[in-house]
Specification:
The chain is mostly helical and about 300 residues long. Helix content is about 65%, strand content about 0%. Strands 1-2 form a two-stranded antiparallel sheet. Pfam families: DUF3667.
C-alpha cells in the first residue's frame, strides 16, 4: 500500500478541479496544477502579494515606466502590450490603498482645528469669544434662524429643514463639538470616505479629458485609462512627499508631480506645447474644484455621521 504522501505527489489521470483527463503538470482544460500537495506558508504569501498587492514580476517594469516615462505606460497598453504590465485598475487600487494606509498610520491630520497659540492669554481670549459666538449662534438656530458670513441674521431655509432634517441635526451636533472632537470627526470622514471619493473622480477626470480633446477620435475608455495611470502616479508622489526626509527632495517631488501631467498629455495625445499647456490649465482648474468638493463631502460625511 502506497503511503499517503506518495498519493498526494502522484500525478492524477483526472483533474481534481474539472474532471478532465490530464497528462503532465497542468490541466489543458482549466489550467490548474495537477501536482497536488499541501499548501505552504510561502505559497500563501506569494498568492497574497501577487493577487492583492500587485507585487509581482511585472510590477517593476510597470512602476519604472509609470514614474520616469510620463504617458508611456498608457501608450503601451493602447498598443496591445498588456501582459507585461500590471493592469491599470489593479495598479491604481493597489497604490491608492497603500497611500491611504500609510497616511493613516503616519498619524497625519487632514484638518486640525484649534491650533495652540504662542500667547496663552490671547488664546484664552479667542476661546472665550468663540464660546460666546457659539452660544449666540445656537440661540439663533433654535429660533429657526442662521448667521451668514457677514454676521447678518437670516431665516434658516424651511425647505432644508423639511427635506433634510437629519442632516440639519447632525450638522448642529457637529458645530456644538469642541475643536479636538471636530478634528477627529473630519479625520474619520477623510479616511473612511476619501478613497471612495478619489475613485469616483476617475470617470469625471476622464470626462474632462474627453471634452478637452473632443474631435480627436479617442474613445472615453482611452481617457479613463490615462486617468488611472496618472492618478496612480500621483499616489506614489504623495507618498514620497509625505515621508520625504529632506526639504530638497520634497521640492523635487513636487516639481515632478506638477510637470508630469502635461508631459504625459503631450506624449499620449501628440499635441503641441501651447495647446497642451492650455488644456492642462483647464484640466487642473476643473479637477482641482472637483477634488476639493469630493474631499469636502468625504470629511463632511464624517462630520455629520456623529462619530
Amino acid at each position: 500500500m502506497k503511503p499517503e504522501s506518495a498519493e498526494l505527489h502522484a500525478v492524477p489521470a483526472i483533474c481534481p478541479n474539472c474532471d478532465a483527463t490530464v497528462s503532465g503538470n497542468y490541466c489543458h482544460n482549466c489550467g490548474q496544477e495537477t501536482h497536488a500537495h499541501a499548501p505552504s506558508f510561502a505559497e500563501f504569501a506569494h498568492e497574497f502579494i501577487g493577487h492583492y498587492v500587485a507585487l509581482e514580476g511585472r510590477l517593476w517594469g510597470t512602476v519604472s515606466r509609470l514614474l520616469f516615462r510620463p504617458g508611456l505606460l498608457t501608450i503601451e497598453y493602447m498598443r496591445g502590450r498588456r501582459k507585461r504590465y500590471v493592469e491599470p485598475l489593479r495598479l491604481y487600487l493597489s497604490l491608492s490603498i497603500l497611500f491611504f494606509a500609510l497616511l493613516n498610520f503616519s498619524g497625519a491630520e487632514p484638518v486640525k482645528l484649534g491650533q495652540p497659540d504662542a500667547n496663552p492669554v490671547a488664546a484664552q481670549a479667542v476661546r472665550n469669544a468663540e464660546r460666546e459666538a457659539a452660544d449666540i449662534r445656537g440661540e439663533i438656530i433654535s429660533q429657526g434662524r442662521t448667521v451668514n458670513e457677514r454676521g447678518e441674521v437670516e431665516e434658516l431655509g424651511d425647505r432644508i429643514r423639511q427635506k433634510a432634517p437629519f442632516l440639519t441635526r447632525q450638522w448642529e451636533y457637529f458645530e456644538a463639538q469642541p475643536d479636538h472632537k471636530k478634528s477627529e470627526m473630519l479625520r474619520y470622514g477623510f479616511f473612511k470616505y476619501g478613497p471612495y471619493a478619489m475613485f469616483a473622480l476617475m470617470p469625471l477626470f476622464a470626462l474632462y479629458l474627453k471634452l478637452l480633446y473632443i474631435g480627436s477620435g479617442r474613445r472615453y475608455g482611452e481617457h479613463l485609462l490615462f486617468a488611472l495611470h496618472t492618478s496612480a502616479f500621483a499616489f506614489v508622489m504623495f507618498t514620497g512627499i509625505l515621508f520625504s526626509p529632506h526639504g530638497l527632495l520634497t521640492f523635487a517631488l513636487v516639481c515632478w508631480l506638477i510637470g508630469y501631467l502635461p508631459w504625459a498629455m503631450r506624449r499620449v495625445y501628440n499635441s503641441g506645447k501651447l495647446t497642451t499647456f492650455l488644456r492642462w490649465s483647464v484640466l487642473m482648474l476643473a479637477h482641482g474644484i472637483s477634488l476639493a468638493v469630493a474631499i469636502g463631502l468625504a470629511m463632511g460625511a464624517g462630520a455629520t455621521s456623529g462619530h
